[in-house]
Amino acid sequence: xxxxxxxxxxxxxxxxxxxxxxxxxxxxxxxxxxxxxxxxxxxxxxxxxxxxxxxxxxxxxxxxxxxxxxxxxxxxxxxxxxxxxxxxxxxxxxxxxxxxxxxxxxxxxxxxxxxxxxxxxxxxxxxxxxxxxxxxxxxxxxxxxxxxxxxxxxxxxxxxxxxxxxxxxxxxxxxxxxxxxxxxxxxxxxxxxxxxxxxxxxxxxxxxxxxxxxxxxxxxxxxxxxxxxxxxxxxxxxxxxxxxxxxxxxxxxxxxxxxxxxxxxxxxxxxxxxxxxxxxxxxxxxxxxxxxxxxxxxxxxxxxxxxxxxxxxxxxxxxxxxxxxxxxxxxxxxxxxxxxxxxxxxxxxxxxxxxxxxxxxxxxxxxxxxxxxxxxxxxxxxxxxxxxxxxxxxxxxxxxxxxxxxxxxxxxxxxxxxxxxxxxxxxxxxxxxxxxxxxxxxxxxxxxxxxxxxxxxx
Length: 458
Known about the structure:
- The protein is α+β, with helices and mostly antiparallel strands.
- It is built from 10 helices and 12 strands.
- It has helices at residues 6-57, 147-196, 201-204, 216-266, 271-302, 314-324, 332-335, 350-366, 399-404, 425-436; strands at residues 71-77, 80-84, 105-112, 118-129, 135-145, 309-312, 336-340, 346-349, 374-380, 384-392, 440-444, 449-457.
- Strand 1 and strand 2 form a beta hairpin.
- Helix 4 runs antiparallel to helix 5 (271-302).
- The radius of gyration is 51 Å and the shape is rod-shaped.
C-alpha cells in the first residue's frame, strides 16, 4: 500500500487550485491580446483601404506603391479593373478576390497572397462621385500578408506560456514553503514522539509534550497526549499496586496454611491442634476462594459484559439481598430502611443492579456502627432514578482517600486487620457503573454520613 503524505497532498492541492486559476487568467489574457492584435490589424487594413481609395481617385499613384509595401490592391469600376498595385505586375493573369457585397460595406476574408503566403483581404464596395456629378459603382480589394501578425501572436503565446510556467514554478516554491512552515508544529510534535519512544524509562518518567508557540489544533493534540501519558502512568502505578496487593492477599492465607500444616506435622499428637486443624484449613481455604472469586468478578466487570435489561421491582430485589446477607448480619432487616418515591419498576440489568446494591449495602453494614441504621433511598427524578445508600461511617475520610476507595484492593489502614474485607467491593461497583453508564458519586458529610449515589437513566 502506497504511503500517503499530508505535506505532498497539500502542496499538490494548492498547486492544482492556483494552477487552474492561473490557466484561466492566462487563457483570458491570451484570447484578449489575440483579439486586440487582430482588431488592430483589421483597423490598420481599413485605414490603408480608405487611404488607397482617396489617393487612387486623386491619381497620386506614387504614394500608393511605396517600395517594400506589404499591401496589394485591385480596384474595379463597373466590374472592370481600373487600377492594380505595382507588385501585381509580376502576375498579369492574377486577379484578387472579387465578390459582390452590399454598397458601403466591408468584408474581411482569409486569402493566399500571390507569393503563396497566408494573408487577409479586405473587400469593400462604394459609390464614387465624379466631378461632373455622375457616380460610379466601385469595388476594391486590399490584401496583405499575415506573416507579421502570426509572428506577433506567436511571440505573445510564447511569452504567455513562459510566464505561466514561471508562475507555476514560483507558486510551487511558495506553496512548499508555506506548507512546510504550517506543518512545522506537527513535525516538532512528531520528533517529540520519536524522542519519547526511545525506551529510556528514566527520561520518559517525567516526559511531557509541549509546543513553544500556541496553535489551537496542535494544543488539542498535545493536551490529549499528555492526558494519555498521565492515565498511562497512573494505570502502571495502579497495576503495580494491584499486583503487590494481590500477592499480599494471597500470600497471607498461603503462609497460614503452610504454618498450620508444619506445626501439625511437628506435633501430630497434640490434641489441641488436631481438634481445630480441619476447621482452620477450611476457613483459610474459604478466604482464598472468596478472594479469587472477587478478583475474577473484578476482572469480568473490567471489560464489557452482556447486559440484559428488564423491569426490576426494587423492593423485591432488596428483600432478596437482605436474605442473602442474613448469614453475615443477623439484624439486617431491622437496620435497613427503604425510602422510595418510585411507583414503577426500574429498567436495568438484574445482575448489574443486584451486584451494585449487594456490595454497597454490605459495605454500609460493615463500616457503620452495629446499632446504626442503613438508609436506602430511591428517588424519582425527571430524567433518571437516583439510588442512595447512606450509613454513618466510623471513619472520617479525606477527599483523597474517598477517591482511592474505588481502586482495586485499596483498604483503609484500620480495616487491614479484618480477614473478611479485601477492598474489592467499590471497585466492582465502579466497573459495573461504567459498563452500564451509571454515574457514581461517593461523598461524606461533615456529620459523618457516608453517601454512595448511583444514577440510572430512565
